[in-house]
Write a structure and sequence with these properties.
Chain A has five helices and two strands. With 123 residues, chain A is mainly alpha-helical. The interface between A and B is large, with 37 and 37 residues. The structure holds a DNA duplex (30 and 30 nucleotides).
DNA sequence: TCGAACCCTCACATTGATGTGAAGGTCTAC
DNA sequence: GTAGACCTTCACATCAATGTGAGGGTTCGA
């Protein structure tokens, strides 16, 4: 598919899709006319990238961890350098902390909303 | 306490503490000499703000939801406008999605690390 | 009283993720 | 064959979070 369709299906501007490619987050084939050509899994890939970006990870990190997230592994274990392992462990911990922070604060919001509802129904 | 101590205790630059204040995320008293004066809870507050910022929330949103997160409530229920409620519900859902994304990808990292370890021990 | 170590405000710089638009090539349908 | 809807690259703009430094006041200990 071409960039317009991918943009529409992922809710992402064309500009950003080109940017993600420039950052090495997604890859695109090229048609004979120079047009980018995406395969079906690109849709999920873009959505995943957007999710991680939205959760505060910079493109630099996303680029590093993405190959390890693929289900049929594209990166194999002998390729894993000690620095890579260290990066992954650090990011794993950081993501855990981020998620905890989000859930903790979300629960506080839920609690507040519950209290508001209770208050309103008592009026 | 003054800004230097708060900076040290929260691992935040003075510049950023002033920025957070400017954005209405933290409040500071003022000494007779114009120096900012922080109370003890400011430490937790700053840490919470940093956590949310790191998890991808913009200051604009943090400012809106922070009052609802305080344990002894500083914002009371009659104050809750319908728009406020809508914002909170939207952010609640967004935070849930963010946390899910983080945990899902973190688990994939964990899985990858496990596989690497297994591979290494088999060599 | 002097110097070090604080603090203040103001302002300009940078970085990363985005928007926007220009100048131009390609494809399709009329 | 021309118009409209795609696509390309390139470049400049913006916004939020953050760094940095200038110019100047305060506090405290030697």
């Amino acid at each position: 598919m071409r960039i317009g369709e991918l943009a529409e299906r992922t809710g992402t501007s064309r500009r950003l899709l080109r940017y993600y490619e420039e950052q090495g987050l997604i890859i695109a084939g090229r048609g004979p006319n120079g047009y980018r050509d995406y395969d079906e899994p690109a849709v999920d890939r873009v959505i995943q990238v957007r999710g991680l970006l939205d959760a505060g990870l910079p493109t630099r990190i996303i680029k590093q961890i993405l190959p390890c997230l693929d289900k049929p592994r594209t990166i194999y274990f002998p390729d894993a350098t000690p620095e890579m392992i260290a990066t992954l462990e650090a990011e794993r911990d950081r993501m855990t902390r981020r998620a905890e922070c989000l859930l903790r604060n979300r629960d506080a919001i839920v609690e507040y909303l519950d209290a508001v509802r209770e208050y309103d129904s008592a009026v």
